[in-house]
Amino acid sequence: MVAHAQSMESASYQIQSDSINVGGAPGSSTTYRLEDTLGEVGTGNSDSASYQLRAGYQQMNEVYLALSAAADVSMAPSLGGIVGGTANGQTAATATTDSLAGYELSIRSSSSPALQKGTDTIADFSPGGTPALTFSVSAGTAAFGYSPEGADIVQRFLDNGGTCDAVGGSDTTDACWDGLSTSPVVVARRTSANHPTGTQTVVKFRTGVGANANVPEGTYTATTTLTLVAL
Amino acid sequence: MSVRSILCSLTAVLMSLMPLCAGAQGGSQFIVGQSIYNIDTTAPSVPTGLSATGISLSAISLSWNPSTDAVGVTGYEVFREGSFIATTSGTNYTDTGRASSTTYMYTVRAFDAAFNFSAQSATTSGTTLSPSPAADEDSDEDGNRPPSRFPPPRITVLTVTPGETEATIRFTTDQPTRATVSWGIREPGDLGSARLVVFQRTHETKITNLAPGTRYFLTITVENERGKTFTLLGQTFTTKPAPDTQDPFMPGYLTATAREASINLAWSNPNVSDFAAVRLVRSTRFYPRDPAEGEVVYDGQAEAFADTRVDTGVTYYYALFARDFAGNYSAGVIAQATVPRPGTIPVTPQDPFEDMPLATMTPPSVEKITLRDFEFVQHGLVLTLTDGAVPVEAEHTLTVRIAYDRVPEVLKTIAVTMQHPERTGETFTFILKVSRDKKWYEATIAPLQTGGRYQVGITVLDYKNQKYARLQGAVVAQIAALAGSSDGGFISYLLNQHWRRVLFVLLALVLIILLWYRRVQHAERRS
Predict the structure, then answer these.
(1) Is residue B358 over pLDDT 70?
(2) Which of A14, B285, B424, B454 counts the most CB atoms within 10 A of its CB?
């Protein structure tokens, strides 16, 4: 039974569905809390290969969307700021949704350039419009870039062996490098549900210091965010 | 109201493994860390598994496990009886030319491209093969030598772990023994000995009251329960040197010359044995006071560098620091330059602080500062300021300092500018650094070499780079061998160049000849 129900919102939260509970009863244990409502008849989920039905009172609008925590990355090895070199690292996150329309996973940095130590910075890798098939820096420069890998990687990071952003391309290991930006860049997209298994996306990072770059010593950090959106 | 409905929406701002609502989003934030180093100061790991096997009457084959290093292992040094015998890039070596039937003790140590050395490995002994059996107490009547039932003891492994003032001696024997360990500086035993009276295979003793960085001789005699003895001779070890906390003295005469698209910097490195490198840092705001401040543009042993990463119209403030092998840095020598805009002429100010504004408020303690508050120190002695000038010896380092508590805590910079006595326009400016014990602002200058009167200007700046005070004085440098006259440095100044010395000697000879000639004439007249 629903009486005088309405949606409510403020600056910090939104109640998407609401009801007045007149016939139900709260129940709880040490591991869960249940608050049911009266009048839920003939409800339940029905799935087939081509559709998913969420039938029942207050079943509307809700999808399962989860992103596992990505671990911090410690680039290895330490690089000589004067002699130069290349360091690598990677992290991974698994996106899971039961949204029939799938999800989008994007990446962004908190600063520009991403990798910083006080006022000292290492430039973001900047290949131009599309990611570069290989990661390289000139002798006098240093750069920091990333390359996503996984089953749901978007076309921008797929290659045909010669270039990235290739239609029908492949997700070649250690290919298609780009620089982080403070604006989100979509790295993975899926147009169907993948609940409950989920899909893992690995983000590889690489720092290149040229032989004449003369990068000041210290520990540089890049605060990076993966954002998952249900479609 | 459904609790799940509220949670569903609130999770839009939460992260990780939370079921969310349609249109909401979740995120995972993480940190990527990248470490950059500019000097390889990490020594390789100590080689392990050293084995020594006699392979002939005169050769012993050595092998060991490879060391690891942050950058890479360049090679290994091999030591026999504590003395260096060879360098090799591999992990094996054959020591030839040895005496037969003789036991030798070996160690190895690894080094990398920056000549960082690992500690020495554990000592291992190897014995060359014997030429033929010889009669001894275990031989039969015909002199044949069956395997002895009671062989003399042998030291199989010896490890010496030296500290700064102590050393731990560990050794094992092939049978239970008691032992005497003797050590000394001129010969084993002249400083002391220790008796290890319990019969056992593994022995350990600690020698104390040793001097840092000193080589000691060591002898170990072991005796088994049947009274048979073995003496290991010719062993040496060296205690670790005391930590070097002495700052090196500064590089000399840093100049910065602006060109069309670069700033050319030149300097002279300090001529001392523990000089490792110089570090050149720059800033567009002010002179870096510390090698970790500003941007590193050069680190190495050259005496010039062209900074090409410059923009026109921007003033670059440089500071150059000398570094010793222990990682100590000198105070900084400074210079500045501006790449001129097209059509303008580059101007390099003689006084690097002439553009700095005067402070509006000067603390009373700073107002009272005079040249007498600064100490000029040579050979540990504070030199006396006379008539606004300090007499110093040109061949020795000179430390300039002022007591830390003589100036306010918030003080930022005390800079000293010295003007060359002969090459007018050539100045040398450096910033005093705070000493480790926080008693002084100080800097040590390389020997001035050239005698004469150096005009000295001392500038005291506040944390806003405004000038508190500007003091003037002089340093009169004398060549020590000729100093001591009461000429106020004038004669020694005349004599400080080689050709001037030659001229002086020639004049003295002419004078002697004239005196001799007059004396001869006088004698002839009398006769």
Answers:
(1) yes
(2) B454
Distance CA A169, CA A154 (A): 10
Q: Distances in Å between the alpha carbon of A189 and those of A201, B198, B509?
A: 10, 76, 99
Lowest-pLDDT choice from A190-199, B424-433, B491-500: B491-500
Q: Do A217 and B38 touch (CB under 8 A)?
A: yes
3-class secondary-structure state, position B217: strand
CB A207 within 8 A of CB A142: yes
What is the tens place of the pLDDT at every residue in A92-124?
999 999 999 999 999 999 999 999 998 899 999
Q: How far apart are CA B137 and CA B148, in angstroms?
A: 9
CA distances, B327 to each of A80, A102, B250, B291 (Å):
17, 57, 14, 11
With CA atoms as reference, report the closest residue to B298 among B263, B348, B273, B326: B263
Two tokens, residue A187? 């790295």
Task: Give me the residues paired with residue B105 across strands.
Answer: B125
| Beta carbons of A219 and B37 less than 8 Å apart | no
Q: Which of B395, B244, B380 is nearest to B324 (CA)?
A: B244
Contact A210, A138 (CB under 8 A): yes
What does the block give as tokens for A218? 């210290």
The residues facing A93 across adjacent strands are: A201
Q: Please name the residues in contact with A27: beta carbons below 8 A apart, sequence gap of 6 or more.
A: A33, A34, A35, A36
Token duo for residue B311: 């923009």
Minimum-distance CB partner of A67 among B1, B5, B27: B27
- Report CA B506 to chain centroid distance, whole Å: 45
Which among B21, B28, B299, B329 is the top mutation candidate for probing chain A, defined by the most A β-carbons within 10 Å of its own β-carbon? B28
Which of A71, A207, A229 shows the shortest C-beta gap to B30?
A: A71
Question: Is there a cis peptide before residue B288, judged by omega within 30 degrees of 0?
Answer: no
Host H or E run for residue B514? helix B498-526
> How high is the mean pLDDT of chain B?
82
d(CA A176, nearest CA chain B) in Å: 19
User: Which amino acid, residue A51?
Assistant: Y
Distance between CA atoms of A113 and B337, rounded to whole angstroms? 28
Is the distance from CB of B250 to CB of B271 less than 8 angstroms?
A: no
Q: Assign residue B174 a region: left if phi > 0, alpha if psi is -120 to 50, beta otherwise? A: alpha
- CA-nearest of B157, B160, B161 to B174 is B157
